[in-house]
Amino acid sequence: MLSRDCTIATSLTHLDPHATQSGGTRNRYYSIMSVTGEEGLQSVPEVDKISFSQEELKVLELWKKIDVFQTCLKQSKGRPRFTFYDGPPFATGLPHYGHILAGTIKDVVTRWAHQTGHHVERRFGWDTHGLPVEYEIDKTHNINGPEDVAKMGIKKYNELCRGIVMRYADEWETIVSRLGRWIDFKNDYKTLYPWYMESIWWVFSQLYEKGLIYRGFKVMPFSTACSTPLSNFEAGQNYKDTQDPSVVVTFPLVEESEAALVAWTTTPWTLPSNLALCVNPEMDYVRVKGKTKERNGTYILMEARLVQLFKSEADYDVLAKYKGKQLEGIRYTPLFNYFKEKEKDGAFRVLCDGYVTSESGTGVVHQAPYFGEDDFRVCLAYGIISRDANAICPVDNAGRFMPSVVDFKGLHVKVADPEIIKNLRTRGRLVISDTINHSYPYCWRSDTPLIYRAVPSWFVRVQQMQDKLLACNDKTYWVPSFVKEKRFANWLRDARDWAISRNRYWGTPIPLWVSEDFTEVVCIGSIAELEKLSGQKVTDLHRDNIDHITIPSAREGMPPLRRISEVFDCWFESGSMPYAQVHYPFENKREFDDCFPADFIAEGIDQTRGWFYTLLVISTALYGKPPFKNLVANGLVLAEDGQKMSKRKKNYPDPMAIVEKYGADALRLYLANSPSVRGENLRFKESDVFNLLKEVFIPWLNAYRFFVQQVKRYQKVEGEVFSFDESVMGQSVNVMDQWILSFTQSLLNFVHQEMAVYHLYTVTPRLIKFVDNLTNWYLRFNRKRLKGDSGKEDCLRALETLYSVLLSLVRVMAPFTPFITETMYQNLKRVLKPGALGKGDNGSVHYLYVPQPMEKLICQEIEDCVSILQSVVELGRYLRDKVNSPVKSPLPEVVVIHKDQKILDDVLRLESYIKEELNVKTVTVSTDKKMYGVALKADMNFKVLGARLKGDVKKVQQKVGELTDEEIQKMLNSGSIDILGHTIDSCDLNVRYSFSGEKAAELSSKYEAHADNTVLILLDIKPSQEMLEEGLAREVTNRVQKLRKQAKLVPTDEVTVWYNVEKNSELARIVTSHSDYIENSIKTPFKPITEKDGSPVLIEEEFKIKDSTLMLTITKGFCQGWPSGVTSGQMSGSEGVNCPWVNIILDGSPRLGVNSCIATLLLENPLGNVVVTSCKQVMEEARTLFGFPQDHAKLYMERKPVDTTIPVSSLTGKTLVITCAQNKVPIGTSAIKPYCKYVNVEGHGKKGCVVLENPCGNGIMTRHAFTHLNLMDQQYMYDMQVVKVHAEATFVSKAPRDGAVTSHQP
Questions:
Q1: In the predicted structure, residue 462 carries a pLDDT above the cut 90
Q2: Burial zone of 151 (CB within 10 Å; 0-12 exposed, 13-18 middle, 19+ buried)
Q3: Which residues form the Aminoacyl-tRNA synthetase class Ia domain (predicted)?
Q4: What is the maximum span of the chain, computed from C-alpha positions, in angstroms?
Q5: pLDDT interval class at 1135 (50, 70, 90)
């Protein structure tokens, strides 16, 4: 089997992620694309000399040379368009595995679209504005707030941002291209381009005209590190478990100072801004008197939350109880007097609202209306604050207390927490001070805790569009569907108005020019409009270029309108990319209208609250329809330990190091075959990439290499050029050819169907499984045919079949693994007949369409038949492994049991393959497993069920033991069974096969049983002594072949193998008795070391077999007397041969399953009856024996060509040599006796001869067969064909030890 070749394990050692790598071993892996102009298939070096990564670089050079991507786009002009939107990444960092995963999915789908007849424009985009860029500048230049930017100047600040925005652009292009992704970097789009920004202005102006834009004062997530508000979906992107203060403070009643309301908070920094308390009007509240040293005051709190203050009921006395509604309006003493003036507006009172719950805290919630969304809403409803009044928001944009909070001014709110707690403790207002671990939102850019803060912002009215958003979402198709139906739909149902303004500098300015009192507002939708209204020329739209521009007021005598200071949220910019990337509507209007919405987009699942959301909101607002038709949302890529990948922790390998070691194809296929393509998270393991290389790419490459080798052999031996035309497909009658062709067409059918619905997660496993079927099944079963052993025509059919499969696989895999498929195709196309792939350019595999399935080649019956074969073989291999019985040791029998006779007929149809693969002598089938006394039995798994069943353990155990075969089978099919009221899963029981009946002991010692969902097999594991000995003989043969390979010998090299084994050992006896079998298997002399001549030693090695030492020595050349190997007349005594004869030597490789190159022909039989009349007939008979090709075959005697006109009788007793290769000098040899064993016969006055083996060493006729020939009763009908047919009908095959094949020549 190619993929199990022993060279692979050693050749891959330097790629093993756990192996030590020396400097000199890297990049020696493969080089299979020659740059020579040689015609025909080019040779493929051994796998262990190949470097996938280095070969991929050669493919990149080829693509560059032929400008393959642009050529593809030119070729596809005029085809139906397939529109793809690429979400723009930031170029302030290098690509990580998340980018590579999404990029791979995008590349596979767009390549597939191109290769199925579409024109696919692929433009790369860059997100160049916003916090990621500004945060880098702030860190580098120690900018801590707006005042620092003001000192520097916006122009200088933006210049710094522009300077780093494309810092890693070159690296991005290099890495993306190296990964094989085709996307246009030259025709890219950047959100900083003025034409892109102009389209964003147009989008905003359309929303403004529709009344969807408003300015509001709203509590929002706020990043103090970035000095800007964030949208709710941004705040939801980065939650972390963190530790915060947990405090309970008192609010004494104004009219009853001895009693106090108590409130709980985890944000002590909001307490200086407290303006009210809130309770639930429907809940029960109590006034209690504390009885402990720590809690001895009088407190008012929710009855259900007494546990927040007291450990037990003994710690307090209940003084009163009332509903929360009764507390409404009660005044309390504020914690601080910073905003005492708000008391006249109704501050420092108890309010009521249903948002207060009994799940945490005290049931009394402190209200700081400008730092909490619910606080703002409730206080606004009670009139304590108003939208027009000055905000009680004493925290600046950098998160520091302003001077109005005199005790803590200048402190960052998080730094102020402990100081505030200390202040409250000193003043006796602190009841409890503790800490709490909880999940808290962090800034997605700066990774610092967010606060909630009321800020004036510009909003898109999303809430009023909820129904339209859900309707548009319903029109889209998502993979996986649950992301659309659950996660995304739920987000849309709870969607809030979208804050699109940011108090920042480097971004697209919001195009609103307003009067100082905001009564006059002008929304600009284009550069031309701004130039017209302002009278100034505009070339760039960034703040430093337009902030100074004014627009005259429409009101006479009023100051000109100035632009508001805010810029757009960068998510608004990326959500506008469908329009802005083509400068819509200012250019490409018709082109955009024809291609909107997009056919396909893909990003990570985290974009459900990011890009996917903003795309949908803007598209729905503009056109009332979704912006895309199909979406693939991939899961996240985590480190191997399940944690987030972190540069600081260094818990993941560098992506480009993986590419350098294993190649981009291996990484692509690993990611495309991972759980991530179905929306689940992937724990990245380098070892899994290596395993994929070892288990898929190496076997695949080996299959391709083997094909090339056999085509070259075929062309050399047959003297014919191999070329492929698809019209020949389906002509083979070989069942394995029919199976692999059918399986290939079924694969194409499946892949087309599944790719149409974007199911990469079903396609990639099927493609990988196909490689396994090709290499581990088809090639394994057909190696001899492909090598020509079954004759020219059958070999050609097998080669054509394999070529068709390889070419189809290369074409269907091209979108997934673009490098190795290109490499193989560049060689495979050399033997395609002109026009086989159509009239177009076929210079690259990526120019070709993915082949459509040929329905006429699909035969489900054959696929099912081979599937049964695979089940039987795999079950048999499992049982051999279980009992530690290697396949080289023959076993007596395998029994296949199934109730369906058709399935058993399929088994018998492929009986020979089963015998060969499992190395069994007999295949038996049966529909009755009771006949063999085999049935399923179950035992209880106590570790799993013991604790769960408790007192019922013994009863359930008894019932489990009583389960019948049918009941157990039903349980396995359904997955569970109900026993005494307990649901027992099938995995909770240990299920096994056992034997019953009178012969149970005998059967259980003889057979091992195993089954899958298809068949049950019994494997006879008791080999006979004869089989054990045959197994050892095969082991010796295996050691010889490995030693030959180690010496780098090829089958045609003339060598002799000498053996030395411990005398009187069992191995010595077996080697001696099976020497003929070993000799026939290795096709070279196998002699005891005592007979060794002085030939040069090529290699020798000592082995340990069955506790005996075997020394093997290989010397150059055949030993003396070879190829005769035996003396004639062993069965006929010392007399000579009755009939004239001639020896034949084939100076080449035999076929037709023949192992020997030497034979003997009888020229007369019986004596006087001429059966070979000419030299031409000698050649014909020899060809019948050896199966060599007729072209270029020549007959030699003593190294001189034989004159074919001479009488054949003149050749009697001579040795003739046949060569097949052109211009080959034949070997020179002679012999005085026939090479083959024979027996003389006499009767009815005539003499004849029976050749007992032909070719020599191909098996001796058994005595049984010989005695039943009845030669003398056949009235000497020694016509060659008659005797040949009779011999083939009566000679029986035996084990090699006593003679194993029929004779082809009498």
A1: yes
A2: exposed
A3: 59-682
A4: 146
A5: very low
Quickly list H helices, 1202-1277.
1263-1267
Q: Does the pLDDT value for residue 271 go beyond 90?
A: yes
How far from 609 is each of 221, 254, 451, 643, 910, CA to CA, in Å? 15, 47, 20, 22, 56
DSSP helix, strand, coil percent of the chain (3-state; round to 5): 40, 20, 40
Q: Indicate the pLDDT class of residue 443, thresholds 50, 70 and 90.
A: confident
* Positions marked catalytic: 88, 127, 571, 607, 611, 644, 647
The alpha carbon of residue 597 and the mean position of all alpha carbons in its chain are separated, in whole angstroms, by 30
DSSP string for residues in 184-250? EEEEEEETTSHHHHHHHHHHHHHHHHTT-EEEEEEEEEEETTTTEE--HHHHTT-EEEEEEEEEEEE
Task: Tell if the pTM clears 0.85, that is, is over it.
Answer: no
Beta bridge partners of 56: none
What angle separates helix 792-813 from helix 735-756, to the nearest 10 degrees?
Answer: 10
The CA distance from 547 to 997, in Å, is: 97
The answer to whether the beta carbons of residues 737 and 801 sit under 8 Å apart is: yes
159 CA to centre of own chain = 44
Closest CA to 1289 of 1275, 1004, 1270: 1270
Q: Nearest to residue 197, comparing CAs of 499, 513, 623, 572?
A: 572
**What is the SS3 string spanning 712-763?**
HHHHHHHCCCCCECHHHCCCCCCHHHHHHHHHHHHHHHHHHHHHHCCCHHHH
H-assigned helices in 462-608: 466-474, 481-482, 489-493, 527-534, 543-546, 570-575, 577-580, 589-595
Q: Which residues contact 1038 (CB under 8 A, 6 or more apart)?
A: 888
- pLDDT at position 90: 79
- The residues pairing with 501 across neighbouring beta strands, listed in sequence order, are 568
Q: How far apart are CA 393 and CA 370, in angstroms?
A: 6
Which residues touch 89 (CB under 8 Å, ≥6 apart)? 95, 99, 125, 126, 127, 172
- At residue 231, the pLDDT reads 67
CA distance linking residue 290 with residue 212, whole number of Å: 55
Sequence-distant (≥ 6) Cβ neighbours of residue 70 within 8 angstroms = none
Lowest mean pLDDT of 418-427, 475-484, 935-944, name the range: 935-944
Q: Which residues pair with 1019 in a beta bridge?
A: 894, 1008
Helix residue spans in 774-910 (DSSP H)? 779-786, 792-813, 818-828, 860-882, 901-909
- CB neighbours of residue 373 within 10 Å: 17
β-pair partners for 259: 298
Alpha-carbon separation of residue 897 from 421, 900, 902, 934, 1298 (angstroms): 79, 9, 12, 10, 33
Is residue 44 classed as helix, strand or coil in its secondary structure?
coil
Query: What is the model's pLDDT at position 1280?
Result: 32
Confidence of residue 389 (pLDDT cuts 50, 70, 90): low
Q: How many CA atoms lie within 13 A of 1146 on its CB side?
A: 31
Average pLDDT over residues 576-581: 94
- Per-residue confidence (pLDDT) for residue 249, from 0 to 100: 95
- Please give the structure tokens belonging to residue 774: 């090709």
CA atoms of 830 and 810, how far apart (whole Å): 14
Q: Are 252 and 452 in contact (CB under 8 A)?
A: no
Work out the number of other CB atoms within 10 angstroms of the CB of residue 1169: 16
Radius of gyration of the chain (CA): 43
**What is the token pair recorded at 621?**
């607002």
Q: Report d(CA 373, CA 392) in Å as an integer.
A: 14
The answer to whether residues 1032 and 886 touch, using CB atoms and an 8 Å cutoff, is no
For residue 1267, how many other CB atoms are within 10 A of its CB? 8
In which order are the strands placed within the sheet that holds 298-302?
316-323, 284-290, 298-302, 259-265, 239-252, 430-441
Phi-psi region of 363 (alpha: psi -120 to 50; beta: other; left: phi over 0): left
Give the pLDDT mean for 786-814: 90
